[in-house]
Amino acid sequence: MSAQAYTIRTHQLGDMGWITYRHAMTVALDYGWGQPFESMIGEISAQFLKTYDPDKERCFIAERDGKMLGCVFVVNSGKKTAKLRLLFVEPEARGLGLAKRLVDEVVQFSREAGYEAILLWTMQILDSARHVYRKAGFEIISEEINTEFGENLVSETWELRLTENESI
Question: Which of 47, 48, 43 is nearest to 59 (CA)?
Answer without folding.
Answer: 48
